[in-house]
Amino acid sequence: MIYRCARLLLVTLTVLFCLCGPSVAAPPIALAKPAEMGGVGLQVVPIASGEIVVIAVLAKSPADRAKLRPGDLIIAVDGVALRGSKFADVTKNRLWGKVGSKVKLTWQRPGVAGKKSAQLVRAALKNEPAQDLEVQLLVPVATPVSEVTKQ
Q1: Residue 46 — φ and ψ, nearest 5°?
Q2: pTM for the model
Q3: Which residue has better confidence, 132 or 47?
Q4: Residue 102 belongs to domain with CATH number
Q5: Separation of alpha carbons 134 and 7, rounded Å
Q6: Taking all residues of the chain, what is their mean pLDDT, rounded to a whole number?
Q7: Residue 82 contacts by C-beta under 8 Å, 6 or more apart in sequence?
Q8: How many domains does the chain have?
Q9: Of 33-42, 83-92, 127-136, which one has max mean pLDDT?
C-alpha cells in the first residue's frame, strides 16, 4: 500500500512537472484568455493505459454536480476513448476549454457495474483546495500495531 501511494505521488509530481513546461510535441493551438478558460473541477492522475483516475473533486463544481467521486476511472471524453492517450493532451485540450462549453465524460466506478456518463458545462473555477483525499495507511493483519508504530 505504501508503495502504491508513493508511486501515485511520484506520477502526480511527474505530471505536474510536465504540464508546467512548454509542450514541444503538441501542435500550436489558439489559446483563450485565462478568464475565458474553464474546467469541470477535477484533480486527476493518469494510469498506464491512458485513462485517468479522479483523486479529488472540487465542491460545487460541474463534476461534483454530476456526482463524480474520487476513485472514478474516466474512460472517455466527448466519446473519444482515452486508452492510449497522452495525459497532457487530455487535460489541456479535452477537460479544459472555453467557459460555458460542454464536455461529455464517461467513467466507471470501482465496485459498480456498468458505465456512467454526463454532459458537463465548463465553468470558471476558483482556486480553492479540493476535498480531503482520505488516504489511510492499512496495516497488514499479521503485523502487530505496536511493531508498526515503532518504526
Answers
A1: -85, 160
A2: 0.62
A3: 47
A4: 2.30.42.10
A5: 17
A6: 75
A7: 50, 51, 52, 74, 75, 76, 90
A8: 1
A9: 83-92
Q: Centre a 10 Å sphere on the Cβ of residue 65 and count the other Cβ atoms it contains.
A: 15
CA–CA separation, 37 and 46 (whole Å): 22
Residue 68's domain spans which residues?
A: 33-126
**Stretch among 57-71, 86-100, 106-120, 127-141 having the lowest mean pLDDT:** 127-141
Query: Does residue 139 belong to any structural domain of this protein?
Result: no
Residue 138 is assigned to a structural domain of this protein: no
Q: What is the DSSP string of 41-89?
A: SEEEEE-TTS-EEEEEE-TTSHHHHTT--TT-EEEEETTEE-TT--HHH
> For the segment 9-46, what is each residue's pLDDT rounded down to a tens digit?
444 544 444 444 443 333 344 454 555 889 999 999 99
Q: Which grid cell is 63?
A: 463534476
Say which DSSP state 111 is in. T
CA distances 8 to 43, 46, 91, 99, 106, Å, are 13, 9, 18, 30, 22
Would residue 9 count as lying in a domain?
A: no
